[in-house]
Write a structure and sequence with these properties.
globular; Glycerophosphoryl diester phosphodiesterase family protein; transmembrane; mainly alpha; 440 residues
Amino acid sequence: MSDGHGPTPETPSGWSAEQPPPYSAPPASPWTAPGAQPQQQVPYGQPYRDAPPQQQPDPLGPQPPYPPHPHHSQHQQHPPHQPPAQGWGPHPAPGYGPHAPALRPGIIPLRPLGLGDILDGTIKLIRSNPKAVLGLSAVAALLAAVPLAIGQVFVLNSMSGILSDPGSVSSAESELTTIYGVAGQYVGSIISYAIQFVVVTLLTGVLTRILGRAVFGGNISAGESWRLVKGRVPALFGVVGLMAVIMLVPLIVFVGLIVALAAGASSSGAGWIALVSILFVILYLAYYLYFRTRFALASPAVVLEGRGPLDAMRRSWHLVSGDFWRCFGILLLTSLLVGLVASVLTVPFTLAGTMFGMFGAGSATTTVVSAVLITIGATLGSMFTYPFEAGVAGLLYADRRMRSEAFDLVLQTAAVEQQRQGWVHASADELWHPSNSAGS
């Protein structure tokens, strides 16, 4: 999905050859020597070979209009048509005629983005700095995958003992073993989610800072990114914590309601409980998707704008309000795409680990191999999911600012100055502050 433009001998490496003034060919001078043929002036962005032919001026100069005929004095006379002076005249209406390509110093063109630009920019973010992006994602995914894999191994070991010799295991022992395995899985899942809560929050902040510099074509190491982000870590945890509360409160209320209904309902009331549960699942899914879309841009606002948790969530709500359904569609499509790719990477290893755990007679070697395979599968899936979702959220944030605040003008001006200097200064990070928006 790359735009196909690479460095050329005429342009510095890393910069696009498609540049607006002052880097394009200078326009022809409107001044000419007496009697000389004027030069053709080509509108910016139109190839010279496609320049429209220019009418030659009359060497005698403009002629005065003829006097009206005495027999037709009652009719209004008009002077003959004169060609407009060079460099003046009517211009095509907006939206028509040739347009200059957008400046693209980094992973995205500096203009409002389409879906293809966002996905392409996310892939370029990963490719432009793979050591920082994929390395940090792999560490985060590994930390979250290990407890989950150990919990699953507990379940598989308990099942392998029952499946290998079901006649030698009493019902009480079988029930106790099953409870032991399920408890191990739940404990592993809880630990995994707690670790995931921490590492994914930190990873999102670091990747967002890398993205903020990559928009201008600059690279930043993982260590430097962490030094810039560590002051924003409490605010990031505040955003994630508030989001967790918003998502968990309806679940807690629902569970309490179901428990109360089940305690006071008769056997005939089980059908009503099931119906209420189905309706709740549908409504909760809509609730989850709505608030996830509304607050999807809060983390970029914390990192790039330096806002607090509540202020960042209000900022995200305001940015999404102008284009909710488009943001919803992009985020939903991204979740489906990364889920599909993660499944392709995860399922083979998870399936192999499950087979080893169930039919390996519960030996220590089989347990270790099973845990390693499940961990590898979960790590590969999450290593792709984390940076892609963070990249899409960050670029969607940039797109909403460009559309609602004319922020693309700020980015273009800064990129032209940085190209003139030949490097991307660290002060480019300050351009994301909302005070720099052209529409503010």
